[in-house]
Every structure is written in C-alpha cells, then in structure tokens.
Design a protein that fits this description.
- The chain has one domain.
- The chain has two helices and four strands; from the N terminus they run αβββαβ.
- Strands 3-2-1-4 form a four-stranded mixed sheet, with helices on one face.
- A hairpin with a 2-residue loop joins strand 2 and strand 3.
- The N and C termini lie far apart (38 Å).
C-alpha cells in the first residue's frame, strides 16, 4: 500500500504519492546525491516542502532550523528519511568546495 500525505498526518492530502515514490512520515527527507544536478548537495524537504540543498550534516541542520525545526534531533530515525544514502553520505568536495 502506498502511503499518502493524509496517512502521515503532517501533510495535506492530495491522494498522490510523494514525488513519485511512497511518502514516509519523517519530518525531513534527504534525497540522493544527483551528480547531474546543476546545484551542489542533496535536496532536502522539510514537512513536504523543498527547503534547499545540503552538502553536509551541518548544512542539513541549518536548513532544518531555517524551516522552523530548531530542536530536531538529526540522529532520530523517525525524523529523517535518508534516500540514497545516510547521514554519512555526502557529495565529495574538492579543495575549492565544489562537488566532484
């Protein structure tokens, strides 16, 4: 069964899966690194809204605070959905800070 936003309780229901995949009830969704993306980092959604891209756990914390989740425990599995990696999977950077 595909879970929709209404089953999660955090999102308005439109009856559709989240971005083509089943939505998980985490407050934060960190998408996989896309080497073809024009912007660096992994896409981050907070409560169903795209809030930016993170290239590190520090970036993720910053985005969460900006999105209104200042006390989110980034180690709590129920708060974050890691897709295509985990808290230790970030794009490699060169010395200049640009992703490889």
């Amino acid at each position: 069964m595909t879970e929709t936003f209404s089953e999660c309780g955090n999102h308005p229901s439109n009856g559709q899966p989240h971005n083509g995949h089943s939505h998980h009830c985490a407050h934060v969704v960190v998408h996989p690194h896309d080497p073809a993306a024009t912007l660096p980092g992994r896409r981050v959604e907070v409560l169903g809204q795209l809030v930016g891209r993170a290239g590190s756990i520090a970036d993720l914390g910053h985005l969460c605070r900006q999105a209104g989740l200042p006390d989110l425990d980034l180690t709590l599995p129920s708060s974050i959905e890691w897709i295509g990696g985990d808290a230790h999977t970030w794009p490699a950077r060169t010395d200049s800070g640009v992703e490889k």
